[in-house]
Design a protein that fits this description.
The chain is an all-alpha fold. About 60% of the residues lie in helices and about 0% in strands.
Length: about 140
């Protein structure tokens, strides 16, 4: 095999020549050829605003439904036993005051609500309730 020396062999020329002052004003020529207007940039969010707003509405709705449901469930009516217990233990209302606060419609409803009580149920209440005598005698 022959020794090949890079410096001793002839160089191959490409045949292209660059003018001497070509790179002196190259950047200015390129800047002149560029358009002065900036291209219109369309962001991802601007293109999909409708989907973004729809997703936000679904999230707000999904979060608000349980809150509204919870608020409606908190508004429960008091049972008659709770009302009676409150009136007996926490107020100074007399029977006359309570009657004066009732409407005529409420009094009619109370009269219609009278139902016969079974003898066994009455005996059971009287035997289990130690304070029943206080209610009967109206003593405090």
């Amino acid at each position: 095999m022959k020794d090949f020396k890079l410096d001793s062999n002839e160089k191959i020329t490409s045949g292209f020549k660059i003018p001497d002052t070509y790179f002196d004003d190259f950047s200015e020529k390129v800047m002149q050829r560029l358009t002065k207007e900036e291209p219109k940039v369309i962001s991802f969010y601007a293109k999909n605003k409708r989907w973004l707003y729809s997703a936000a509405a679904v999230v707000v709705l999904a979060l608000s439904v349980p809150i509204v449901y919870q608020m409606q469930n908190n508004e429960t009516e008091m049972t008659s036993k709770e009302v009676e217990s409150y009136l007996v233990n926490h107020t100074t209302l007399s029977d006359d005051d309570v009657v004066n606060l009732l409407d005529q419609e409420d009094i009619e409803k109370l009269k219609k609500a009278d139902t016969p009580i079974a003898k066994e149920a009455l005996e059971d209440v009287l035997s289990n309730n130690t304070e029943i005598e206080q209610y009967i005698t109206n003593e405090n």
